[in-house]
Amino acid sequence: MNIKKALTIAGSDSGGGAGIQADLKTFQELGVFGMSAITAITAQNTLGVQAVYPMGPVAVTSQMESIGEDIGVDALKTGMLFNAEIIRAVSEKIKHYNWIKVVVDPVMIAKGGASLLQTEAISALKQYLLPLSMVVTPNIPEAEVLTGMSIKTMDDKQEAAKSLFDFGVKNVVIKGGHDEETDDAVDILYDGNEFYYFTSKRILTKNTHGTGCTFSAAITAELAKGSTIYDAVTTAKSFIQAAIEDELAIGAGHGPTNHWAFNCKRSGL
Ligand SMILES: Nc1ncnc2c1ncn2[C@@H]1O[C@H](COP(=O)(O)OP(=O)(O)O)[C@@H](O)[C@H]1O
Ligand SMILES: Cc1ncc(COP(=O)(O)O)c(N)n1
């Protein structure tokens, strides 16, 4: 069996709903072989982040080397990178291995408000990592921080996408999960030429822990299998919609999404 291989470079979420855990569950559900390079360990549950223990940059790159020297990578994503040293080291390794299918989820703040990226690391993200990315997937607050723009309307989203494209990103997806006053959750994709819109009905739920991680992991899995960007985002949008719809009421706070739901729905279960 010629299985495709996907790598996540991200933080561990002990609660299992976001980070490395969400990414590996998504990779598995979408039929790719999942691997990880852990950037930080978080003590986390549905109520929030209780502690963050970052790894040193060499600990992160040595995980990437172990994978690069032996197994290889068809596509990778980055999630929580925490500080500028890790961003710089990860960017250098991606360049070294000439890994092309790179999805950057610029994780900054957990749903409960904890910081997952130091403020001084934002310029490193723009300078070193965005130019290496095939796709970047900010939510609205992240796109605002990266561009310095205030994003309220669809026109603002388009302007922000163009501005992110100018950092050297090949495709920009601005996610609409935080657009809470709209009935639909609309994600937009900009490839430097055209805008594409991915629309689904907004689900009223507090159980959205890990939606961004799961969405970017699904894009990564589909790119690893050879999909176009448009098809990868289409599948990721269906995957996350099914996962939010079929919510898991786990814990007392913001619960996780259901990573089985997409395949259950596809097989009529
Ligand atoms: N309540 C919701 N109903 C339907 N889709 C949602 C909802 N919340 C988020 N999404 C979708 O989940 C994905 C992640 O979006 P978002 O929540 O904005 O990211 P993040 O987790 O990074 O903040 C996007 O495809 C978005 O449209
Ligand atoms: C380790 C880790 N990485 C990322 C997130 C962001 O989660 P979300 O996808 O809900 O924004 C998180 N809470 N924890």
Automatic annotation (TrEMBL):
<keyword id="KW-0784">Thiamine biosynthesis</keyword>
<dbReference type="InterPro" id="IPR004399">
    <property type="entry name" value="HMP/HMP-P_kinase_dom"/>
</dbReference>
<comment type="pathway">
    <text>Cofactor biosynthesis; thiamine diphosphate biosynthesis; 4-amino-2-methyl-5-diphosphomethylpyrimidine from 5-amino-1-(5-phospho-D-ribosyl)imidazole: step 2/3.</text>
</comment>
<dbReference type="Pfam" id="PF08543">
    <property type="entry name" value="Phos_pyr_kin"/>
</dbReference>
<keyword id="KW-0418">Kinase</keyword>
<comment type="pathway">
    <text>Cofactor biosynthesis; thiamine diphosphate biosynthesis; 4-amino-2-methyl-5-diphosphomethylpyrimidine from 5-amino-1-(5-phospho-D-ribosyl)imidazole: step 3/3.</text>
</comment>
<dbReference type="InterPro" id="IPR013749">
    <property type="entry name" value="PM/HMP-P_kinase-1"/>
</dbReference>
<dbReference type="InterPro" id="IPR029056">
    <property type="entry name" value="Ribokinase-like"/>
</dbReference>
<dbReference type="GO" id="GO:0008972">
    <property type="term" value="F:phosphomethylpyrimidine kinase activity"/>
</dbReference>
<comment type="similarity">
    <text>Belongs to the ThiD family.</text>
</comment>
<keyword id="KW-0808">Transferase</keyword>
<protein>
    <recommendedName>
        <fullName>Hydroxymethylpyrimidine/phosphomethylpyrimidine kinase</fullName>
        <ecNumber>2.7.1.49</ecNumber>
        <ecNumber>2.7.4.7</ecNumber>
    </recommendedName>
</protein>
<feature type="domain" description="Pyridoxamine kinase/Phosphomethylpyrimidine kinase">
    <location>
        <begin position="13"/>
        <end position="258"/>
    </location>
</feature>
<dbReference type="GO" id="GO:0008902">
    <property type="term" value="F:hydroxymethylpyrimidine kinase activity"/>
</dbReference>
